[in-house]
Amino acid sequence: MDRLDRFRDAHLGLFIHWGPYAIRGFEASWPLVHGDVPFDAYEALADMFDPTCYDPVQWAALAKEAGVRYAVLTTKHHDGYALFDTQLSDYSAPKRAAGRDLVRAYAEAFRAAGIMVGFYFSLCDWHHEDYPVELSPHRPERTRMPHALPPGVPRSIEADPARWDRYIAFMHGQVRELLTNYGQVDLLWFDGQWEHTAEEWRSVELVAMIRELQPDCIVNDRLADPTLGDYATPEQYVPVAAPNRPWETCMTINETWAWNPSDRAYKQAGELVATLAEVTAKGGNFLVNVGPTADGEIPTAFSSRLRVMGDWIARNRDAIFGVAEGVPAGAYYGPSTGNDDALYLFAMGRANGDVLRVRGLDRKVVSATVLDTGQPLEFDQHGGHLERGALRVTLPASLVDPIATVVKLDLAPLA
Ligand code: GLC
């Protein structure tokens, strides 16, 4: 399998948003912009963030149980705090209260668990003194940052190109550190690209460096030029039509990326499974997010849901991995996946059972079973080439899986 095929068949990733912001239980970085906290108070969190219970071996074990095949940790969010050891800044875990490199242990633990290792990295850095915090008329509050230019001054790259050069050298240098010091990096997940153009970020050079240092590394599309990067990243939703390139939906379990105890809007495990099914049926991936606490623990609200999802995946893996898209939308009212020999129909909910219908099937159904239990189901298939297969499968209430029932159809060529 080439690197992208392996990524495309992974289908489930774990996104981890973690940093000093977890102490306050508010969103990562954005409180700086929204004025929830003074700049100095935000930055002082780095001198308190010392996650004494951090055990990425446990995180990886949970990820395994959840059925996850790749992970993406925020090595640096927009706030500029690096969880890794960087020679280029003092605003980092080893040089502040944590006193150690938090990325190394993560990379080692996940790699040892057989999970692909991904790094999230923000192109923008609201801490760095050379980063020109953009003065957008829509975001005048951003000028609160001490190193931002006063209102009325245009974008400062033009005003001081040498300063921008220094920033780019720093930012590219940190990416180089990540790609040099942590063994094989399977995926780079960029973000924060919207503040500048690809030309300004020197994204082409950045990708060239990645390809040189780690030729197998997969790169997402947030480099301010959609032609760069390997795959698309719709955020917080599943696109109605699948993008015409590899893609991944990233989504929170509640509504915040970082740990936020006051956000109780948790999705049920069944909703997570439904999202995984829908994304898989459209040939994409699902990057499901958790926000660990400041101590380094993944709260039960997340882990319990991930375990339910993982248990469901373990029982239904044939419908998720090693399969392609199923029948076209509208041929079956729900997600479906399949290969030459089988078609998998996902039925969500349906506590009372149902009759599942498929139109336009150009193969003969040999048997219909509940994938998880192997229970045979009654079905009838009318017509051959002329009616192009009107199929009905009866799913009795007694065989319904409350999370999602997968019906497996064994197929043979039409006689
Ligand atoms: C957005 C947010 C950022 C978050 C990311 C995850 O770009 O700015 O906070 O990390 O989405 O997809």
Structure in words:
The chain is of the alpha/beta class and 415 residues long. It folds into two domains: 3-319, TIM Barrel; 324-411, Immunoglobulin-like (Sandwich). The chain has eleven helices and 15 strands. It has helices spanning 3-8, 31-34, 39-44, 56-65, 102-112, 156-159, 161-180, 198-201, 203-213, 269-281, 300-316, and strands at 12-16, 70-76, 116-122, 187-191, 218-219, 248-252, 285-290, 324-325, 336-338, 342-348, 354-358, 363-370, 379-382, 390-395, 404-413. The strands form three sheets. The chain has a seven-stranded parallel sheet with strand order 5-4-3-2-1-7-6. A five-stranded antiparallel sheet has the order 8-9-10-15-12. A three-stranded antiparallel sheet has the order 11-14-13, with no helix packed on it. α4 (56-65) packs parallel to α5, α4 (56-65) crosses α11 and α7 runs parallel beside α9 (203-213). It starts with a helix and ends with a strand. The structure holds alpha-D-glucopyranose. The site of alpha-D-glucopyranose has 6 residues, from loops. Alpha-D-glucopyranose binds at residues 17, 28, 191, 235, 250, 257.
Task: List descriptors.
415 residues, alpha/beta, TIM Barrel, Immunoglobulin-like, 2 domains, seven-stranded parallel beta sheet, five-stranded antiparallel beta sheet, binds alpha-D-glucopyranose
How is the largest sheet built, in terms of strand order? 5-4-3-2-1-7-6
What would you call the quaternary organization?
A: single chain
What Rg do the Cα atoms give? 24 Å
| CATH fold node name of the largest domain | TIM Barrel
Low-confidence stretches: none
Number of strands: 15
Shape, please? Answer: elongated
Query: What separation lies between the terminal Cα atoms?
Result: 34 Å
* Overall average residue pLDDT: 92
Strand content: 15-25%
**Which compounds are bound in this model?**
alpha-D-glucopyranose
